[in-house]
Amino acid sequence: GGVTIVHRNATRHAVNVRVRQAIGRPEDQIAPGEPLLVLQNIYEIDTYNGEAVTFLGWEIDGAFGSPVLVEDYWTKAKEPLHFGLARVQLREGDPALAVLCPEQVFGMTTKMQIGDKAVALAGRAWVSKAAPETVEYVDVWDVRLGEYVPKAVWPPLLNSNFGYAYTAHKMQGSPAPGVLVILEPTVKLGF
User: Engineering a disulfide at 103: which of 41, 108, 110, 148 sits with its beta carbon 3.0 to 4.6 angstroms away?
Assistant: First the structure.
């Protein structure tokens, strides 16, 4: 596989929908093997903005269960969102556990005016309650105490959308075996 490069996020979401329809993916579920475009650096699992990871499946399905009411501090928007614990294949190494928000993967949180930071905070709160067995403890130096203390580390939220299409901004510096560029009317060619 190659990727499609577009100018606007709205076009990227539309291309993702059309590609998924063309290859027979379910319209309301994330299917194993689908590429996810990482929208924010996630240092805990060594994954960075603009990279692609592969969805391998759910440990705790994000499409079911009670939604969490998420409020965006800046936009004041409030929406019920779902969260799930997924296994994803990173570009290198073993698969990792990460929290996914299906509404974000489908590109719906942008229309809801719920930002990535609000989704990330809610996802971290969700995993601490829904999957307490996934916590790991690492020793960190506490300057005030002058000693190492245990710190709880949960699987991180993977801010992501489907990765069949990228904006030119997200694709900068990333290799691809094949590329299709869609020139939109919003692109100023300058010649």
Answer: 108
